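Quick board copy: two proteins, each given as sequence then tokens.
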Amino acid sequence: MPDVPDRRSAWQSPSASTRRRFLQHTALLTFGTMAMLAARTPPAIAAAKRKLTMLDWNHFVPIYEEKLREWGNEFSKANNCEVKIDHIAHRDLYVRLAAEAETKSGHDIVMLWWTNPQLYAENLIDLDDIAERIGENGGGWYQIARDVNMQHGHWKAVPLYASTMPQTYREDLFQEVGEERPDSWEDVLRAGRKLKPKGYPSGFAFAQTEDSNITLYALLWSFGTSTVDERGKVTINNPRTKEAIEFAKAMYRDMMTEEVLSWDDASNNRAFLSGKWAWVHNAVSIYAAEPKNAPQLRAVTGHALTPKGPGGRHGVSIPFNYGIWKFSKNQELAREFLAYISAEERLSAAFEATETFNNALLKNFEQHPYWDKDPKLTPIRTYNRDAHMIGWPGPLDRRAELARVTWVVPNMFTKAVTGASTDDAMKWGEAELKKIYAAA
């Protein structure tokens, strides 16, 4: 019989033994990997969790910051990511935004107030779908929202809210001198002349500060004048501007103190909350701060729309807009978060939590039930109907923004109330505005 090879001995050769050990090890590794996946145990080197960053301001009603943190935590858990929101002083936003746009690095979402969406439009992604959805759900946008945030037919940012700047006054003090809710600038001056001798001045800032811009532009408009016309031609040197300046001089002389020359954006809040001032022109952040800082004033604080003048009633709107940088590495996640915090129920929750400070530029918000919950706030529910952006009626472009941030109008009025002639102050303002509008 011929010899038959020993197959078992062949498989047990050194090379066969090596192959068997290899197969055994491979099977063990495969099983271990499958076990880790089944147990959701990550390997030693795992993909980093997505991190979304947002730049916002130090809100004057801090409870809104708490709301944002709450929503950020909810979103983080639902999307397995981290949301980090940085808050800085509003005066520091200018430098921070410019630095991020220049270096093409920084936060994913940024707050762009006033007309900043126009300044940074080329660095921002389009947000048409989010903005239009908000508008449809909210009964339509006020035109000012589109003017500020749209460029070449596209939404470059979304205005989550706008701050109203009404009158805040002491109802008890006004009643003591026979005055009711002030409706016009004449009403304010008349009451102020009665109250200052009693130790209760009234006032607003004559200084390089946002509140000064807000009040003095509104005063100009109410006298039927402005810095420029619809085409952007400088028109401030006219008889109506002269009347507005003369009226401001009377207000400063007869109802204010020199303190207003050094006020910043928080000064009128502090003044009113001290109980020593009768009237200021400021956001409802004062009212929201009273329960904690001046509870005794809550029952005697009243509100009224920005005063009207011979040229009608005109307030200033301050839109707080949010955009996403083109250089963001998390654009889709940023879009999802922006859509999340702009949902109708969250805009409404913010409106109530801030006691109407976060007043969306949506027409349905005029009918929000919270206006009727507190009669102290009801008188200002229509504020947005008469509100404009600084630079109105001219284009809301870089020139209007530059005029605002270089304090041309506050400086013009301040020169007049501190000794310069009305004509000289007006001519100075005209010259400064022409430099800005001619250079663009």
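And the next:
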Amino acid sequence: MNDFKFSGAMVGENFNNHVKEQLPFYEMVTNAVTMIVRNYLSENGLVYDIGASTGNITANIKELALSRNAKVESIERSEEMAKSWNGYGILHTANAADFDYKNFDVCVCFLVLMFLSVEERSNLLLN
């Protein structure tokens, strides 16, 4: 999996189509993640979406974040993928392992950890 790159034909609308084709449960799980966020996001809270791709998670939690006056920040390391981001909140084009995190209520790592080496995963989760 480490050889997979989010570039070229794998970004933008092509990415969304690819994911929906390869993972028929994608929308259902996106909705499940939204329900989990609903249970942990406090008023004036902060959500991070790591590996944001095109922004489906933050787009899905927009109304929730607005109703709770919460901040939403996405992190996507692929500059090419970040150009296709259509989420809600702030997008940082950065390596999540090197990011300077603030205290947060929820951190979403939706379908991202499998693309990191075991060492990168450990460093990110222990960060």
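Board note added afterward: Helices lie at 13-22, 26-40, 56-60, 62-67, 79-82, 118-126.
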